Amino acid sequence: MGAGEPAVTTDPVPAPEPYPGWLGLDNSAKIWPALLSPRHSTMFRLTACLAEPVRLLWLEKALSDIASRFPYFQVQLRRGVFWCYLERNSVASPSVEADSVNPCMNAELIGRGRFPFRVRAFNTRISVEFSHMLTDGTGALTFLRALVTRYVELSGVACSRIEGLPHVGEPVDPREWEDSYQSAIVDSPSGLPGVPTPESAYRVPSPLLPAGAYRVISGLVPVKEILALARDHGVSLTEYVAAVLLSCLQDMQERDVAAQGGRGRVRPIRLTVPVNLRPLFGSRTMRNFFLFVDPGIDPRLGRYSFEELTEQVHHHMRFSLQEKHMRRLITRNVRGERSVLNRLMPAFVKDVVLQVVFHFLGDRRYSLGLSNLGRVELPPEAAPAFTHWVLVPPPSPVSKVNCAMLSWQDTLCISFGSMARETRLERDFFRFLSARGLPVYVESNADWCEHRVGGS
Q: Are 80 and 346 a contacting pair, CB within 8 Å?
C-alpha cells in the first residue's frame, strides 16, 4: 500500500450522538455467540476494489472520521449472566489491519477493547468484515460506502450527498440502532399457524479444508447480459442465479448417486436466501433485519428441467416475500426469545440449547446460502475510483459452500466462499454461465490472480 498525507479535512468530526451504554443483541444475532468456533466465525466480508493502491493514512483518517456517525458499531461484545450484549467500546475505533489470504477467519470477537468487525486493506482493496452478531449485509454495506466515500473526499474530491448514505457531520437517527424484529410481530389471541420444519438437504460432499482456511472464488460478469438471460426466463436476477445453483447441485447429486452404483440416498436440494426486511416494514435500522426464504426442489420426484427450476424458484420466492408470511416467521422467533423459561435460563445453558437447535434446524436443512445485496450506490464523483465490489458470505463447516453477489455499475460479482477441498460446484456454475455466452472473469484468494473461463 502507498502512504500519503490526507489532502483535505473539510468536515469537522462531531461528538458522538446520545447512545445507550449497552444494547441487547437483536433477535437474529442471539444465536451466533453460541456457535462461535474457529470454523464458524460468523463473519462476512465486503470489499471495494480501487483503481489505484490504497493510501493507508487516508483510510485510517476516514475510519476515524466516520466512527462517531456509527456509534452502534463502536461496541464490544460482552457475556452476561443470561445473554450476550453490546457495550460501548472504550476504544474509539478499530485500527486498519493488514489483509489475510483467508478472509473472515481467526477473529477474536468477545472481550474488552475488541470489535465485532474489522477494516482490512491490501494493495487495491479496502475490506470490512462484520460479525452477524452486529449487523447484516445491508448495514455493513452502508458502513463501507460511507468509509470509502470519506476516503475519496480525503484524496481531494468533493462528493455530493446521496440519499441513504450517512455522512460525517450529520446527526444519528436513534431508529438506526433499534431491534426492528420486536415491532414486526403479530399479536394474535388465537395463535398462529405453525411453520413446517424441512428435512435435511443434500450438501456438497467434500472433506473440509484445514482449520483456518477459507477459499473465495469470484466471477465477474456483465450485469446487462446476465439480466437479459434472467428476463428471457421471466425471473429476477436472484431467482435466475438460484435456479442455476439448483441445476448444478442436481447434476452433482446425480453423479454422486451414480458413482455409488445407484445406491446413494437422494435428498432434497434447498437454498437459503436472506431477504432484507427494511423496505417491507419501513425500518431504518442498521442492525440485523432479515429473514430467509428457502426455494428448492425434491429430486425424488424426478429430474427438473431448467425451465421447471426457474418457475419453481420464482413462485416460491413470490409467495415467501409476502408481509403476512414474514410476520408469522418473525413472531415465532421473537416469542421464543420472550418466553419466561428462555429469559431465566443462564447463558451457558442457552448456549447448549442453541447449539442443539442449530444442529437440527440450521445449516443441515439447506444445501447452501445465496445472498444478493443488489447494486452499490456511491456519489457520482467517487465512482471513478472503483473497479468492482465483492461480497463474501460467512463460512459454514456444515454446508461448506455459500454464494453471494452484488453489482457495481456494469459488473456483477458472484462469489463462492468455501470450506470444501473440492471446487466442483464453483466450476460447474461458471461453466453454466459461460456456455450461455456470458464472459466470465474469475479471481481467487488462493493466488490473488485472475483467469478467463472457458473460452469466453
A: no
Say if strands 75-79 and 43-50 run parallel, antiparallel, or are unpaired.
Answer: unpaired
CA dist 139 and 46 (Å) reads: 11
Residue 93 structural domain = 22-181
Q: pTM for the full model? A: 0.91
Domain count, the chain: 1
User: What DSSP character marks residue 2?
Assistant: B
Q: Is 205 part of a structural domain of the chain?
A: no
Helix (H, G, I), strand (E, B) or coil at 207: coil
**Residue 105 falls inside a structural domain:** yes
At 102, which CATH number?
A: 3.30.559.10
pLDDT in tens, 108-141: 888 888 999 999 999 999 999 999 999 999 999 9
Residue 112 lies in a domain: yes
Per-residue pLDDT tens over the stretch 208-261: 999 999 999 999 999 999 999 999 999 999 999 999 999 999 999 999 999 988
Contact 392, 369 (CB under 8 A): no
Instruction: Provide the 3-class DSSP secondary structure of residue 25.
Output: coil
